[in-house]
Structures are given as C-alpha cells and as structure tokens.
C-alpha cells in the first residue's frame, strides 16, 4: 500500500493538469512533480490502459488531453467510517506532542490528506467538530532526554543517565542503562532497560531522567527478553517475576463502575447478594494497584493478600492521623 499511495497522488495531479487544458506532457509533469519522465509515461499508460481514460496525445499542442471534456478520475470512495478513523487518529496524535516522532507523524497525516481527491464521497452528518478528546496529564520531558533515549532504543547503544528516584527523598544517582523497550502509560513515558548499577532490568520514567548521554558502547538485547511475557500480569507500568493473587470487595455504590471495565486480563468478578462484588486478579506488582485501590476510598476493602491488607490499613490510618492533626 505504501508504494501505491504516491502513484495515486500523482494520478490525481495529472488528472487535474489535464482538466486545466494546458496539454501537459511527460517532461513538464516530471519537472513539476520531481520524478523522471519515464515515471510519468507509466502513469499515462496506467490511465489509458488500466483506468480506460479517454486520453490521447496532441502532436500540435505537444501534450495530452481528454477526448471527452467532462471526463475526470472518479473520486476516491472513502467511507465515512474510514474518514472518521483517520480523524480520530489525528486527534489522538496530539498526546504525542513534544516527542521526537510527533513532527514526522504530522507529516504523514498531511500526506494522507494530500492524497485524497478534491471530492471525497461522504455521507450526511460528517461534522467531526462535535468530538473532543481530553488527554491525561502529561509529564514534562526535556527534548534532549527524548532524543537521547529514542536514539538509544533505535541504535541499541547504552545511555549514561542521572536518575532521580521517586522514593527515598528523590536522591539522584548516575548509572548506565541498556534501553530495551519504550512504554507510554497514563501520560508518562518509560524505558525498560537493563541497569548496570542494579544488574537487573528496571523501569525508568523519562520525566525523572535529568541527564542522558548516548554512549559509544553498543549492546545486544538478550534473546530471552520477552516484553509481552514479563508484562503479562502487570497492573500499571511496574512488574516483577512474582505473581500475587489479590481479592478486593467493592461496595454496591461503586460496583457498576467496576463491572463496566476490564481492569486486568486475569480479573474475575463474583457478585454478592447486596449488589456488592468481589474482584479477583493476579498481578506481578502491587505499587500501582495500591494507588488505584486507595483512589476508591472506603468503597474498596482489600481481603488478600495479608501484606497488602496491612499496608492499606497502615496507609489509611496515617491519612486519618494527618487530617486529625489538621
């Protein structure tokens, strides 16, 4: 498909030039489109023999014209659902603004728009202005960090970084990492990398990288690194090799919100007589799950594992103390 799209754009261009009555020829069109004359000649042959266009050459005018003045290439039959999908994709593209790929993706969409004919078959009700997308809050990432990390992922070269940990007072440390995989999650970008300091695969937030320098040292992603496998049981962007079964009781007030979404691939819902429900899932990390459960307040009660019950009890007690002191 990618190879055919430029030809389609050229055919529309040639069709327009012929309709203008200027008797275009291979040389003039090739110069304007910046391709070879042979390419334009093949396009003329395609118009004549494949699309059966009433195209002929005028020796007097030294150019081509249609023997049927009203003829023009048929408009591309773009279904409204197709056009809507393009519109949605372009709107969703806004969430990648500020990344190294944003400008290139915008250019791709401009090319798609340019390849569409002037008259596109659309049905009624095609006013897409009635749709709005609210993006999640995004982290602030330095353009230099973006470029270094993306280049490391692309070229498989190590990075020397200064990284500020989220816990422990936010202390900064220098380390060398081998970037394996990039991930976007809830407005933040992460890089999954082998950390030479910790000697294990870790997750790094690009927003907490204050310095990043591409090194000359290349690396090879291990053959046993399987991103899909290691993240299969994740809840959020953090994971580990361990699997933990979690059971949570949600009150009947919020149970409808729990039922309507797939929160995790392993989830099972057990209905209770009073309209409440039990949510069971098996996860590989509790960090983001714990934050999610706290967001439900007293409407969510953790039943197991016991260590998570104790952590939630300690956290809610500390929160109550904080407000009592106020």
Radius of gyration (Å): 29 Å
Number of strands: 11
Instruction: List the total number of helices.
Output: 10
Which structural category do the helix and sheet elements fall into?
alpha+beta
Note the run of SSEs as H and E.
HHHEEHHHEEEEEHEHEEHEH
Tell me which CATH architecture of the largest domain applies here.
Roll
- Report the span from N to C terminus: 64 Å
The proportion of residues forming helix, as a percent range, comes to 25-40%
**How do the strands line up in the largest sheet?**
6-5-4-3-7
The global form is elongated
- Do you know the CATH topology of the largest domain? SH3 type barrels
Spans where pLDDT lies below 50 across 5 or more residues: 1-5, 121-125
- Estimated share of beta-strand residues: 15-25%
* CATH structural class of the largest domain: Mainly Beta
Mean pLDDT: 84
Largest sheet: 5 strands, antiparallel
**Overall number of domains:** 4
Description of the molecule:
This protein is α+β, with helices and mostly antiparallel strands and 326 residues long. The chain has 4 domains: 4-66, Arc Repressor Mutant, subunit A, CATH 1.10.10.10; 80-124; 143-230, SH3 type barrels (Roll), CATH 2.30.30; 244-325, Alpha-Beta Plaits (2-Layer Sandwich), CATH 3.30.70. The protein is built from 10 helices and 11 strands. The protein has helices at residues 4-19, 26-33, 37-50, 80-92, 102-115, 143-155, 227-230, 255-259, 287-294, 306-325; strands spanning 55-58, 63-66, 157-164, 172-185, 188-195, 200-205, 209-218, 244-250, 268-271, 277-283, 300-304. The protein has a 5-stranded antiparallel β-sheet, with helices on one face. Helix 1 (4-19) crosses helix 3 and helix 2 packs across helix 3 (37-50). It is elongated. The relative contact order is 0.07. Mean pLDDT is 84; it is low at 1-5 and 121-125.
